[in-house]
Each structure stands twice: as C-alpha cells, then as structure tokens.
Amino acid sequence: MNLNIAVLAGDGIGPEVTAQSIKVLNAIASQFNHKFVFKNAVVGAIAIDQTGNPLPDETLEICKTTDAILFGAIGDPKYDNDPSAKVRPEQGLLKLRKELGLFANIRPVKAYETLIENSPLKRNIIEKTDISIYRELTGGIYFGKKQTSEDGNTASDLCEYSRFEIERITHLAFKAAQNRRKKLTLVDKANVLESSRLWRKVVTEISQQYEDVALDFLFVDNAAMQMILNPKQFDVILTENMFGDIISDEASVIGGSIGLLASASIGEKYVMFEPIHGSYPQAKGKGIANPLASILSAALLLEHFGLYDEAIVINKAVEDSLKYEITTEDLNKSENKISTDNVGDFITDYIYNRLDSDM
Ligand code: IPM
Ligand code: MN
C-alpha cells in the first residue's frame, strides 16, 4: 500500500516521540512491502515562532493532500501563564481538528497485565479493563462563542451542540459497541446542562437502531468516580468534547502512564492520529519521554487503512517491551535507564527480527 503521511511533530517532546513512530513505520513498510512517504509540517509554538501562526496555511494544505496525519504534541509554558497572549499553540491543534472535520476522537484505554503494579490503583480494580472512549472533538465549549467583557472582569465560553453533531459520533460509537461487548455509556451532565439533555434525547432515539447494544447514562461527576472505583464496568463511553478530555486523562491512570494512550481522530474526509499526552516541556530533549503513545497511534493509523497484521506486530512489540521493561522512566523505576530512542529501537528491531525469523 502507498500512503502519504503528514507528520506534525509539534512542540516539546513531540519531535522525539514522533521520530520513533517514523522508525517503526519505516520498519513496517520494509517488512510488508508498503511505501510510506512522510511530509513534515509545523504546528503549535514552533509554528508561531517561525510564522506567527500556530497553523500555517502550508501545514493545513499538506494535511489536506496526504492520506493521514501523525501528530506529536502541542503547547509551550511560555504561553500558559500569559492570559493576554493573543495567539496560542493549542489554537493550532483546535483549528486543525475543526478545519479537517475530525469530529470523533477515539481513545482506547486498557490495563496491560505486565503494568498492573505500575498503576496506583489496585490490581483487582483495574485488571482486564478495556474501554473505548468516543470523545466528540469539534463542538461544545471548546468551539462555542468566547467573550470577555470590556473591563476584563467577566468572561464566558458557550457550550453548544447541534443534533447533527451528536448523531454522527453516536452512530460510530454504537457501531464500535456492536463489535465489542455491546455496552454504551453516555457521560453527560443532563441534570444541569441543556446541551447534555439534547445528547440524551438524540442518543436514546438512535439507540433504537442498535437494539443489541445496552445503553446507560452516567453524570460526569459520577463517571469520574466510577472510572477509578470500577473501570471494568465500561465498554464504550460516548461523551462531549470537554468531558471526554477530562475523563480520558483520568482513565490513563489505569494503564499506569499517560505516555501509553494513543488516539484516532476521525472525520468524513481526513484522519489524524495523536497521543493524548501533552508536550511535557520539562522532558524536552532529555530522552526520557515515553514514545509508546505515539507508536500506538501509528498502529491505529495502520488499522484504519486495514493493515491489521501490521498493527498486530506493533502491538505485540509494545507488549514485549513492557514485559522486558524496555520502558522509559514513567514506567521503569530501575537504575538501568532506557531512553526514548532505546524503546523505539527495541520496537523497530522486533519488527525486523520477528518477521525475518517467521519467514
Ligand atoms: C488533548 C489535549 C488538547 C485538548 C489540548 C492540547 C488543546 O489536552 O488532546 O486531549 O484539550 O483537546
Ligand atoms: Mn487532554
């Protein structure tokens, strides 16, 4: 298969973790006879530094003319404590999601057997957890009207959803549930928010078309508690943009590190694959960042194009790296320091060696 892939490595640890994914994808291409062509483009703080714009037109154009986008990370502390900053790195990512219509962000969360002891949660609570979070990605409070009063003392962000925005991701989430354990939980705040009541109404209506899937509802505050009390109860979670952002960071505690969580952002026309973690600026250039979220995002990319065997090899390599503790310091407390690059090399070597010895 020929694939053109836009690489938007972004800020902080983005470039170093994304470099590992490129190595891994090159190994897959060579072992399975594919041709992957990578095109780099800037986004985020680095794009602001170079062009004044967190999402330059050229970057958007590259994204629109490739088959998929591999995204790294975004954000820089120099903007975080400056409320008056007019341009922010995050606007690059948000604009990218919006412009490309990437309305569904799918975040798989699972407890790897070999990492159970890395989680601060107890084994009996987390073992065998396997959740797929469907986070709406282009609507809600992230994209509603924003206002600050003239005196600067009042500010507001509007949370707005249309039926259409709810319907399209709801269908995807029900279909995913049909292929999993046939349970879908809508997370909302329907006891308080009008937009959540619309979500409940629309999702309930659509559920009639998926009678084999059991639908239930949880208020987001309760869901946050249930996520650490009894995460095994969840199969597919469907939720709006901001609740999904929060719940998925919380869910990463189950896996033992946020450095493991990958995601796929899907639209009608375009697809992007992104780790859920941020730019982790404190770690930039130190070789300590976990590349697995990026590598697993690359595996989701392959799956999206039907390259299942290829994705399976990557997933197996990741499991082996966890088993043999070829892991960065977020997962590895031993004296023997394993770098970002070492992890990438292990996965890459696995792909070359494993497949050569299979033939
Ligand atoms: C994420 C991130 C982004 C979000 C930020 C960087 C804008 O936290 O992908 O979860 O809030 O969506
Ligand atoms: Mn987030």
TrEMBL record:
Cofactor section: Mn(2+); Mg(2+)
Domain of life the protein comes from: Bacteria
Site residues by UniProt (Important for catalysis): 142, 189
Binding residues for substrate: 97, 107, 135, 221
Principal location listed in the UniProt entry: cytoplasm
Pfam family, one: Iso_dh
Subcellular location: Cytoplasm
Function, as annotated: Catalyzes the oxidation of 3-carboxy-2-hydroxy-4-methylpentanoate (3-isopropylmalate) to 3-carboxy-4-methyl-2-oxopentanoate. The product decarboxylates to 4-methyl-2 oxopentanoate.
Family membership noted in the UniProt record: Belongs to the isocitrate and isopropylmalate dehydrogenases family. LeuB type 1 subfamily.
Known partners and oligomeric status: Homodimer.
PANTHER family for this protein: 3-ISOPROPYLMALATE DEHYDROGENASE
Name this protein carries in UniProt: 3-isopropylmalate dehydrogenase
Species, as recorded: Halpernia humi
